[in-house]
Structures are given as C-alpha cells and as structure tokens.
Amino acid sequence: MLIHILDIFAEAIILVYAIAIFIVYFSLSILSGKELLKYFYTEKITNFDAILSSPFAPTISIIAPAYNESVTIVENIRALLSLYYPNFEIIIVNDGSKDDTLNKTIEAYELEKIPYIIDYKIECKEIVDIYKSKKKAFNNLTIINKLNGGKADALNAGINMAKGQYFIAIDVDSIIDPYALQKLVLPFLTTTDARVIATGGVIRIANSCKIKDGQLVEINVPDDFLPRCQVIEYNRAFLLGRLAWSRLDGLLLISGALGLFDKEIAISCGGYYPKTVGEDMEIVVRMRKYMERRKEKYKVAYLPEPLCWTEAPSTLKILGSQRNRWTRGTIDTIFLHRDLFFNPKFGTMGMLSFPYWVFFEWLAPIIETMGLLYFLLLALFGFPNWIFFSVMFFFVYFFSISFSSFAILYDHLIFHRYTKKRMILKLLVTSWIEPFFYHPMITWWALRGNWDYFVRKKKAWGKMTREGFSKGARP
Amino acid sequence: MSLVFLIVFTASLIISGDATAQVVPEVNPALAIDSVSDTIRIRNSMEGKIGNPKIDSPLYRIEIKDDRTYDNFFSRLFLFDSKNVKSELIGWNRFLPTPFDELYRGIIEKAFRFPVVFVFLALILALAGNVVLVIAVLFITNMTMNYRLRRTRFVRDHFEKTLTDLMLQVTDTKEAIGILSKSNLKKHYNLLIDVMMDFQKSFRGDSDRQITEIYQGLNLSKISYNKIYSMSFYEQVKGLRELTNMKHHQATEMIMDKLNDPINIVRTEAQISYPYANPDAPFEFLGFLEKPFSRWAQVNIFYLIKIHEMPVPSFDKWITSGNPNVVNFCILMINLFQQQENSQHIIHLLGAPNETTRNLAIFTCGNLHLFDSKDIMKSSFESETLGNRIEITKAFNILGNESDIPFIEKIIQGESIALRLEAIRTLNNLGDGGRARLSGLNQSMNFTLSPYISHIQDIRN
C-alpha cells in the first residue's frame, strides 16, 4: 500500500514538474522572441555616434580582476584601451598573482607607483600599491596591486577606486566588443520611469574564432564538440531565458564576464560578497533586494547583443569544475536570500524569478536524476510501460531540440554571426545529439556541485587550469 | 523512424482526400473491391515478406473505402466510428520496419485507451514539424539574406550613382526624378529615402535642396506618412525622421503630436527631431513636455546642435518648468554654453527639492564662478547628501578664498575620506594662505595629512 502511494506520488511529482518546466520554457521563448524583435528594431534606429563626443556621457569605470594572467594581460589591456567611449577609466586589479602579471603590465605601460589614499567604502583585502602610467596616453589606466582575496574581493577593491558613476565588471581575458560600453549604457540613459541598476549583455564562445591584438577578427563555430555544445547552451540561456526574464522584470543574473552596474547602489548594498563563488548572481539579487526595500522603482536591463566573447572550456575536467562552481554559486545565493522565496513583498523577483531559480535551476538536475533512478528501478523490476515511455521520450527529445533550434534561429535572424550554411548545420546537428551526451554530463556535474556544497562544504573556487583566456563566466 | 512515419502518416491523412486502402490480416471471403492500385505495396506480416498483395489470398481482406464520408483526419478521429479509425491507424504499420510494428500497435492501442497519449503524439508531431520548419527557415533565410544583401547593394549603388550625378550636376533634378520613378525601382523607395538621408548628412546648401526636391517630386512623403500612422514604433520613428530630414512642411505638426507619445522611443525621436525641424527655435518643445525627457534625447539633441551649429537660446525660459528633466537639461546647457545671464536662476535652484537638480546647480555655480552662491552652499552643506557635499567642496576649489579656510578646515576634520580629500585639494588651491594652513593642520591633526597631500598633489589622481 505504502509503495503504491509512493509510486503515485513520485510519478505525480515528476509529471507535474515536467509539465511545468515545459510550460515555463515555452513561455520564455515566446517572450524572448518578442523582446528580441523589439531590440532588433530599436538598435536599427539608434544613433550610437551621438554619445561618442557627448558631455552628457556618464563616466564608466571598467574593473577587471586579474589573477595569473601574465600570458595575455598586456594584449587584453590594449584591447580595453581601444574601446569606443568618451569617458571611461580602466582599473586592473592584480589579485595577488603568483606569476609576473604585474611586472609585465608595469613594463608594457610604463607604470609607476603613485601616492594614493584609498577610501575603503566596501571591505576588501589590503591594497598594497596603486600604479599609473607615466604616459599621458594611458591616463585612464590604473593598476591595483592587492593581496589575494578572490574575484569578488578584487572587484570590491576596484569599486573602491572607481571614479565613474557606473562600473563595468569584466573578466580581463574576455574579448569585449569595441562598442560594448556605448551599448550597455543605453538603458541607463533611455529609461525614464525607473532607475536602471544594472545591465548585462550576451556572452559568446570564442573557441576557433580568429583573434588579433585582443580583437575578434573572424567568427567561427567551435571545432570541438564540447565548446560547440556550449554555444547552443549559451544561446538558449541568453536569447531564450535571460531576455524573457528581463522583459518580466525578474532577471537575477548578470554574467560575471560583462555587466554594467550603478556604483552608488552597489556600494550602498555592500558590494560583492566575497564568501561566495556565485558573486555575479548574488550581487544582482542583493541590489534588487535593496531597491525593493527602499520601495524605489528600478530595472535590471539586458541587451541581447553579443558584446563579450570568451573561450569556453574544451576539456571535461575544466568544464566539470566550472559547472560544479556555478551550481555551488547558485545554491549559495538561494540560501543567502531564502527570505525571497515566494515572498510577495519582493514582487516578481520573490514570486516568480527566485522560485524559478530554486525549482528549475537548482533542483532541475536533482529531480531529473530522481526521475531517471525511479525509471531504472521500474525497468529493473520489469514495470515500465514502454509505450508511454517511448511517447514521453520522443516528446521530451523533440521539445529539447525544438527549443535549441529556436535559439539558433533567433541568433541567426537577428545577429547573423554564423554566416555559412556549414556553420548552421554544425550547430543544428550538435543540438540533436547534445541531449544524449552533453546534457547528462552537465547534470552529473551539477549533482557533484550539490554534493560538494552540502556534504563536503566546499566554498572555494577550486583550482582552475588556465587555457588561453578561459575562466568561464556563467551564461 | 516511427516518428518520421507518424508525421508522414498524419500529413497524408490530413492532406489526402482519395480512397484509402486498408489491409486487415484476416481471412474474409466477402471481398468488396472497387479498384486496386498496382503500386500499393503491402507487407505480408505473417511471412515477413514485402510484395504486391494477392487479392485472392485467404490471408487478406482488402477494403477500399471511400473518403467522401470522412472529410479529414480529425473527423475520422473524433466524430466517427472509433473502431474503424483504430483499425485504419493500425493498418498504417505497413510503412514501418518489422521491429517497430509491435511498438506502433501498442502506441495506437494505448492512445485509444488513454486519450492523453494522443495529445502527446500531437505535440510530438508539432515539435518535429517545428524543428523542420526552423531548419527550413534557417536555410532559406541564409540564402535570401545573402541574395537580399547583394540585391540591396546593387539598387543602393544605382541610387547613389543617380544622386551623385545630380550633386555633380551631370544631371538635373527633373532628370533624376525621371530615372528614379521607373516602375522597377518603386518597391525600393524605402531604401531610396535612406540613401537620400545619408546624402543629406554629407551635403549642405544647394545639394540639400535638390534632395528634398526629389523627395517631394517622387511623392515620397506619402510613404513617410504611412509609417507615422503604423502600429510599429520602428515605422513611426522612421516616418518622423524622414519627414524631418526632408524638411516636409508638416513635419513640425507631426512632431508635436508625438512629443508626449506613450511609447518612450517614439517620444524621444520626436524630441530629437524638433530642433532639426525648427532650427530657428530649436528648444521651444521644452515648454510642451509633459512626459520625461530622457538623457538619451538630451545626448542626441546636444549632438545635433553641435554638428549643425544651431543657435542656442537662453534657457531661462524653461528653467522654471515643472518637469525636473527639463530643468536639469537647462542647467547643463547653461553650464555648457556659459550663460552667465542665468546665474540667478542657478543660484535659486540650489534649494531645489530634487537632489540631482541641486547637484547640477552646485556644479554650475562653481563652473560659472557664481560667487554669490557661496553663502547658500555653506549654509546648506550640513543638510546635503554626501554626493552634493563633495560637489560643494569641489565648487569651493574655484569659488573659495582665504575667508573660507575655516569652512574647509571643518570638512577636513570630518569622517568622510572622499570629502576630506576634496577639502584638502581645495585648501591646497587657496593660494599661499591655504597651503600654509594645510601645513599647520598637518602638525595639529589627530591623523597624518601628508599622504593626503601627496595624493592630491599628483595630478593623475
């Protein structure tokens, strides 16, 4: 009797969950399509040149934490210096690198120590030295040399030094589109009915692309299977998920690789939380919470435009470690802000987007695994109804590839970055086989992340092997 | 494979209106055959062979049904005899390889027992169709995009050549209108308007007039009008922009209509277009603004004024506006164009309720050297926000003299490092008296001032 009840209960949960997830994804993709179209037309009629020489352009501080980046640091700074924006400063935070990151930078940009009083508006590890260039051409470049404290701590140090009204948090090894600043700042200037507290953009995979002097010169679909799967995954996350959440005013995550923030709000709510590995999501949630508590109208905007390119992990080991960290970061944020869960005081965030993160981002791999184990158990005892199984299997599979196809289509229609037929075909074929090979691995690493978080109490970033310019900001 | 079959099968049922052969593997001597197609291949499931059916075989009963009684798949499925439909569906297993036969039959059986299976089957078909459709769209658009790009480039080149000839006086306006009014070009008039607007950016004087003549000559304003009345914000913006750039006599009227449009982007476009359409009185629209005046519109208007060297009026007219965005814009413009005549207005705004307005007013007081504002700033210092206090301290960098040393000194003794730094900078800039006081403070303060002094003395900070 008990087994029978459990049986019904398990089946009901899995079925209801599956139906819910499909409805949510379907709705998100419809919303995204609408929003994407709006962006496409808005972008066509926007004159970005107007801001390039405007005294009205707000000051932006670019903060880029660097840890053992000696291979690419000089080139990356050069790329940042050539961004098109009238009023910006670059703050590179050397987070206690063990290699010669600092020396290479000093040499390349003729830096010298300067006397500097640091106003520690946000807590961070001790800033040892500040460097500025002797050359006037690099007047807007500042290097902070500080004790190692992790990415969030480095960003806090950068915020303490930032002079801009807004700051942009980036991974120093990412390739930023030269027009990224003028595009990212747009929602801050156009929105009149609310205070924009943060803006994010699309992160794209740069594997197999040609890069020269820190600039992207030729776009290609990655040759390797793993990065190619990540192209599809990022497309789904950014073009179908993130955009729709922005439209619903429920966006909780701005990728750590590229995000523009209102400095005043970020400081008011305490900056980045250094004890989490999911600092990118945590700060957005905290900023939103702060605004909700002040009952001030606000907005977290999002641009579906590919403004940042990053190299995705191409080995299982690095990818696994990255996904493990993302999972731990998500859990950390969820538990740190558990008071948001179905809390009507926090509006859409409390009632919609936070529960979505709990059920469909954190719990999805767990429920999926439970479903799989339950099915295997049934199979072992010869109970499964193979007819129903095959119908459901095909339904799930086709839903999955349909969703991916839409992500590829949206990207193609709006941005047309992969111009050759061969490239599109490669992506399509990858999306057909990805559910059988890539998805189970991602689920496994997510489970490992849960295990590490709850059982091993692991909170650190873990050892990241540097490979080109890969650090892996989550989509 | 079974899925492909399902798609083919359903599609054929929906599309087909012809007679459908149904094979039932049972012996039935009562054969009722009207016609049999030679091409129908039926699998002999009992022997596992593929071949043409033997009509007289005792293993089969072949029925040819007339579809006239069953209009389509759905009517068969839901409205009519379910047994017939079921057996008909099962009969379609002949398209399947043998290993899938059992599974297929099972699915049909289950579907008739549990209708939800039908829902899922329909969803599978829809999703599969969706994928096929997406692939088709992807490849078709990829092809058409490249074709359209080539075609657009070709037509654009043609338009550009015609307009260049006109600019270089190889042809005259009449001739150009003749060339451009050819019927095969009419469908590209949107592109022509874009090309004309691009030309307008580069040419002035006579050339500008010739372009607007062509616009009117070809009656292109009709296209722009239609855009303004479109539902799409994109079209509305394009329409407004075209009418304005082509100096259409009704442009201002249209702009006024859209100045307080509920759609932000349309409203912004109208605000940006107004100065262009009315270069003699470019800012009159400020008096009509009821909705917010975005910073983006302000950026664009400033850009327009700069590139077209438009005359800038005195902004005192709108500085008392009830719209805080307009007031802030006016302060910025007074500051940028150094309109000293509006100094009293600026000083008055030091007591504005809006924090940003006060901040801009403080900044402008410093920049315009409004010494009368000093006492007001000093008296409001304590009640101001940190940001505005910093701005006041910075303003004293310009406005201050030795009489202000006690005020600055008090700021230095405060807690805020940012304020202290600005105050030390100000004191350092107050001439010899200020610097002497600074070294005196260095001895007496309960904290060391020298690192602060080193900080502010490095011009890079």
Write up what this structure looks like.
The complex is a heterodimer of chains A (475) and B (461). With 475 residues, chain A is α/β, with parallel strands linked by helices. Chain A has one domain (1-45, 174-475). In chain A, 52% of the residues lie in helices and 16% in strands. Chain A has helices spanning 2-44, 49-52, 73-81, 101-109, 151-161, 180-184, 186-190, 225-247, 263-268, 279-293, 316-336, 347-362, 364-380, 386-414, 421-454, and strands at residues 60-66, 88-95, 111-113, 127-133, 141-146, 166-170, 175-176, 195-205, 210-212, 215-218, 258-262, 298-310. A 10-stranded mixed sheet of chain A has the order 3-4-5-2-1-6-11-8-12-7, with helices on both faces. In chain A, strands 9-10 form a two-stranded antiparallel sheet. In chain A, a hairpin with a 2-residue loop joins β9 and β10. With 461 residues, chain B is mainly α. Chain B has a domain at 2-113. Helix content of chain B is 61%, strand content 3%. Chain B is built from 22 helices and 4 strands. Chain B has a two-stranded antiparallel ribbon. Chain B has a two-stranded antiparallel sheet with strand order 2-3. The radius of gyration of chain B is 40 Å and the shape is flat. Chain B starts with a helix and ends with a helix. The chains are: A alpha/beta (475), B mainly alpha (461). At the A-B interface, α1, α2, α7, α14 and α15 of A face α4, α5, α10, α12 and α13 of B.
Query: Strand-and-helix sequence of chain B, N→C?
Result: HEEEEHHHHHHHHHHHHHHHHHHHHH
Number of helices of chain A: 15
**What's the oligomerization state?**
heterodimer
Number of DSSP strand runs of chain A: 12
Radius of gyration of chain B: 40 Å
Summarize the structure.
By secondary structure, chain A is of the alpha/beta class. Helix content of chain A is 52%, strand content 16%.
Give the helix/strand layout.
The complex is a heterodimer of chains A (475) and B (461).
Chain A: H1 2-44, H2 49-52, E1 60-66, H3 73-81, E2 88-95, H4 101-109, E3 111-113, E4 127-133, E5 141-146, H5 151-161, E6 166-170, E7 175-176, H6 180-184, H7 186-190, E8 195-205, E9 210-212, E10 215-218, H8 225-247, E11 258-262, H9 263-268, H10 279-293, E12 298-310, H11 316-336, H12 347-362, H13 364-380, H14 386-414, H15 421-454
Parallel strand pairs in A: 1-2, 1-6, 2-5, 8-12
Antiparallel strand pairs in A: 3-4, 4-5, 6-11, 7-12, 8-11, 9-10
Chain B: H1 2-15, E1 20-24, E2 42-44, E3 49-51, E4 61-65, H2 73-79, H3 82-91, H4 101-113, H5 115-167, H6 173-180, H7 189-202, H8 206-217, H9 221-228, H10 233-245, H11 251-258, H12 264-277, H13 295-308, H14 324-336, H15 343-348, H16 355-367, H17 374-380, H18 386-399, H19 405-412, H20 417-428, H21 431-444, H22 450-457
Antiparallel strand pairs in B: 1-4, 2-3
